[in-house]
Amino acid sequence: MIRIAFIGLGNMGGGMAANQARAQRRVMAYDLSKTALDKAAGAGCQAAGSAAEAVAEAEAVITMLPAGSHVRQVYAEEVLPNAPRSALLIDCSTIDVESARAVAAQAKASGFRFADAPVSGGTAAADAGTLAFMVGCDEADFPAVQAALEPMSRITVRAGDHGAGQAAKICNNMVLGVSMIGVCEALALAEKLGLDPLKFFEISSQSSGQCWSLTSYCPWPGPVPAAPSNRGYEGGFATAMMLKDLKLAQEAAARAGAAAPLGATAEGLYALFDRLGYGGKDFSAILELFRGRIATAHEAAM
Ligand code: NAD
Questions:
Q1: Residue 194 and residue 252 in one domain
Q2: CA proximity to 94, closest of 238, 272, 270
Q3: For atom 25 of ligand 1, which residue has the closest CA?
């Protein structure tokens, strides 16, 4: 039985670890949150008392943590000093390219194989085992990475060397943030012009305005039953997470000397939406900002 250590059992990691256990792997799981740990234990994982304990006998270590600072700390203090050198280390969190490369260099210097492998697909795909993984790793290590990720994945692509997985992820999410705002602007304009937004969906989803944000994740309730717009924009991909990814893209663009002005505008709009108190709502809820239907938390309480 393959021995997996899984650290970070939140919205994403919880479902991912459960799929590893479902595939008959022995999963030693750890999270700072007892609730998350108990849930993982209920899904067939073994609860470890610490990250150090979780990785002690692992063949593969998978981390799914909030941001670069958490990943740097967990690797420096828990994983690298305690995992067997033979363990394959895979970080699936979305973090900055520099942190991914720094952790990869430390892991390599300590004799480990490492991959950055962020995901696309959200919590539904994490639960269903249908995530898309974009991987940065040494070419020789890719088959082992693919095998380790298999129970959680629909598709796994090697983007390039260390850091390339994170680069692919932030570029992809910049497209997503920008395209969602474009779709929301268009739906709000359609409404203002007296055009039924559902009719606009029918036309644009079969015309050149077609894109994932419109057709697979429609921010207007109705046409796409699985979209968060049909459940009050709860669950899905939080505005605060989208903002984090757009910030990562802008920081990367500034460092690389790249121009990404639409990404910057999207970051500004999501920062505003977050400031208005909507950080926990799905990112497609920004439609309400363009419709002029936003209430601040203060107004909503009145
Ligand atoms: P989350 O906040 O729900 O989960 C993170 C978990 O990490 C929490 O349970 C937290 O307790 C745990 N944690 C933090 N520090 C820890 C430590 N030192 N040791 C052990 N556990 C620790 O976040 P999430 O939504 O699961 O996202 C995780 C990552 O996946 C993020 O980088 C996010 O950007 C990325 N991501 C999220 C989505 C999504 O739809 N939620 C989609 C794609 C990628």
A1: yes
A2: 238
A3: 11
Which residues span the domain enclosing 254?
168-301
User: Is residue 296 scored above 80 in pLDDT?
Assistant: no
Model confidence at 1: pLDDT above 70: no
Region label for 156, one of left (φ > 0), alpha (ψ between -120 and 50) or beta (otherwise):
beta
Instruction: State the residue for tokens 């998978």.
Output: 62
Q: How confident is the model at residue 284 (pLDDT cuts 50, 70, 90)?
A: very high
- The amino acid that residue 188 corresponds to is A
Q: Which CATH number do you get for residue 250?
A: 1.10.1040.10
Q: Amino acid identity, residue 109?
A: A
| Distance from C-alpha of 253 to C-alpha of 150, rounded to nearest angstrom | 32
Q: To test the ligand 1 pocket, which listed residue (237, 241, 270) has its Cβ within 8 A of the most ligand atoms?
A: 241
pLDDT value of residue 183: 98
Determine the number of helices (DSSP H) and then strands (DSSP E) in the chain: 15, 9
